[in-house]
Amino acid sequence: MVVTKENGAVNGSRKTSPQDIADALRDRIRTGTLKAGDRLPTQAKLAEEFGVERGTVRQALLSLQRDGLLNHISRGSPPRVAEGSAAPVPPVAQPQPQPSMVALAPRLAEAFGEPHVRVDVVSYTAETLMNAVMEPIRQIHEGRLRPESIDVRILLPSSEINLAFPVPVESDDERDRDRLHRRWLAQRNAQGQVLRHNLGALRQSHGIDVRVTFRALPFTTPVKLYLLNGTEALLAYYTLERAQLTFDADTEGRAAGAERLEPVEAYDVGGLTAALFSFTDGSSPRDTGFVEESQKWFAALWETITTDLTLS
């Protein structure tokens, strides 16, 4: 491979990203090296030039198409430079964040369209993921999605720590803190078990290689993060709110008296309604950087201070 100005990063300290390729091609268009109506080289030739896989080139081309610099991209002939592309292109409007329970399911369904699916999660419980993953599972049963493997890694708070939330609003009663902890732990374990069961069932029904692994965080995470196939990051903040938390006999223990089922006024978070912000690798330098740093953050947690987690 001939090392050019564009692909020199391959042999440097950083791997060439879709954004690097898009920026290089954008410069060629705006300087007139590539004129309106010109065809770009094939994806194979661009991949060879920049020293990357074709998928990386395709992400770069899709970014340029969204910016209005290229005509329709297909798997056939290379795209042409769009008319008027030498003029500055206004930034593409970013989608508004939506509640997690609305936003996550379609993003998971798109991620499950890849042959090898990887989902990395940092969360307070598995509630949102447990609900959202039912959409790609449904599409798999309908034959619309056919992944070969699914690898899900989830970081949840350890049962051994003192949670930052939920906490009683006014009461210093340690019994209430203990009740709130048991309530959260029951939810964490039940939701994790359902998630693992629903995904694991695809192994028998569709022959998909499925792995669902949990590890325990030594702290209460103030955010939840979903990393999809290493190319998209979805982030939401856990915002504390005052809430009346109720209990049931299973959580409290069937031998407990009825008085122990009294609700507790507490500061807690609502994960399903938390606004989910999306960042996509290759769409902008900011988004690319966020996805890369988020993946590094997750990997560092997974490999260092977290411990094995058993759902029981």
TrEMBL record:
Annotated segments matching region Disordered: 1-20, 74-98
Keywords annotated in UniProt: DNA-binding, Transcription, Transcription regulation
Domain annotation HTH gntR-type: ranges: 15-84
Any matching Pfam family: GntR
Compositionally skewed regions (Pro residues) per UniProt: 88-98
GO molecular function, one term: DNA binding
InterPro entries listed in its UniProt record: Tscrpt_reg_HTH_GntR (IPR000524), WH-like_DNA-bd_sf (IPR036388), WH_DNA-bd_sf (IPR036390)
Protein name: GntR family transcriptional regulator
Species the sequence originates in: Streptomyces typhae
